[in-house]
Amino acid sequence: MQAFHLLGPAPFYTNSFLLISDAGHAVIIDPAAEVQEYDKILKEHNAQLTTILCTHGHYDHVGSAGTLRREHKAKLYCEPVDCRGTQLLPLKAADVDSGYEEGETIAVDELKFTVWHTPGHTEGGVVLLCGEYLFAGDTVFQGSMGRTDLEGGDDRKMEQSLRKFAKLPIPRGTQLLPGHGDFSTMGQELDNNFYIRQALRNAKAE
Question: For the chain (length 206 residues), average pLDDT per consecutive 10?
């Protein structure tokens, strides 16, 4: 596998990732960068884009999704509830090939993505585990969490998702790749993320 990190445009600089399997099939997670940036990597590595995985539907995470899907005839995944055709959630149901099943594994050659739903930032938020990489979208950032005051956000659901996140069967050394900002590890967030720790404290108090 080869892995590439790209950034979306200012002011959000959304983290986007392109993975290429040993057989030359490519997967994009959160297609936020410009289309030509992905095309350049695909051409340089003689890779075929087959799959696009969106952690949620906000415009700063899906900006190139439609064009890449059409251009490469790739399968596009995003939760239908996040596909409203609005300014904030621009994808429409017709733009998307599939949502996600809780706990399902999406396989592209040796790349296997396990999916868990983590609503709160949006109704359709998910996190994706592939080997030693955890693509956390806007659920968990280094030392923080996704905001809940936008369309589809929900404080209560976010707290439930953070509790769930803390109990996922993911090794502590797994690299956590958030939708924005610096990378971290699962262990660092379990030990140091105030919002995760607070959600767990609240669970004990209930």
Answer: 96 97 98 98 98 98 97 97 95 95 97 98 98 98 96 94 97 98 98 96 79
Question: Residue 11, preceding bond cis, omega within 30 degrees?
Answer: yes
**Global pTM value:** 0.96
Q: Which of 23, 17, 24 is nearest to 53 (CA)?
A: 17
- Mention the CATH class of domain 2-205: alpha beta
**What DSSP designation does 98 have?**
B
Q: DSSP string covering 105-165, please?
A: EEEETTEEEEEEE-TTSSTT-EEEEETTEEEEETTEETTEE---SSTT--HHHHHHHHHHH
> First CA to last CA across the chain, in angstroms?
44
Domain ranges of the chain: 2-205
Pairwise CA distance, residues 43 & 90, whole Å: 28
- According to DSSP, the β-strands at 2-7 and 15-20 are antiparallel
Half-sphere CA count of 161, side-chain side, radius 13 A: 28
Alpha carbons 52 and 106: distance in angstroms, whole number: 11
**Residue 1 Cα distances to 62, 131, 135, angstroms:** 23, 10, 16
| Tokens standing for residue 23 | 């057989």
